[in-house]
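Hello forum,

I keep getting stuck at the same step: I have a sequence, I want structure tokens, and every attempt I make locally crashes halfway through. Rather than fight my setup again tonight, could one of you with a working pipeline run this one for me? It's a single chain of 273 residues.
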Amino acid sequence: MEHHINVLYGAVLLLLIVQLISFTFISSQSAKLIAQQNNFEEGVGDTLNQIRQENQYRISEIVRSLSQQRTDFENQISFLKSTQQDFSLIIEDAIKKVVTVTTDVSAGTGFAVGKGGYILTNNHVITGSSAIQVQTYSNEVYVAQLLGVDENADLAVLKISGKIDSFNLSDSDLVSIGEKVIAIGNPLGLSFTVTEGIVSALHRQGPNGLQAYIQTDVTLNPGNSGGPLVDKKGNVIGMANFKVGGAEALGFALESNVLRKIANEIVGSEIIS
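Reply #2:
Ran it on my machine without issues. Output:
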């Protein structure tokens, strides 16, 4: 009888030990599973955050690319419109920025730049004069002050007290051969005459040694000197300077980049940006 009781106690004890071991094992596995689940969730969370960041970056790049493409497209449309239309839309505005320059010995053309009544013209237009007058398209007449000249570049800078609209100067390095242009001037005393042509060549060398002239087939006659060569955007790309004597459709204009540099040097400050 006692032997059976001992066997029963032993069986119960063994069962408890087995259950304890099973519980410990199950608890350990559960802890591992929970830890793995937490690690998995953290990993998934990090991966999702990384994916979100990458997607946001890609979306930003796509938006930026689309915006740039739209800008490029609009620029192309504007360029195509400008190449297909004539100059009638810009002449009315451009001609108001051109002036007749008259002295006691000669006459020519000039045009307004910057702010403050600055006028550019050729030096040979005002050379030897004792008085200079400027007449605008609206028939206002001003006595002009000579600020300075560059004889080699044949450039003079004048200043008037009145208000006048001014031209922007284009980057002449971006001018293309074949591009349509107009010249505005006072040929043979015919005030504010507009002639049209194309750019025939770039960076031609002038008689002064400067390799800074735009060759054009625009008709240039006495009185055009100092007038602007204007592109289809209404900006100045050069100043009418000289033509080859006796030759038709062979005129030359000092490039706008050189005009800007020398004019600012003459005045001693940046009047043209």
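The first strand starts at residue 98 and ends at 103. If your local run keeps crashing, start a new thread with the error log.
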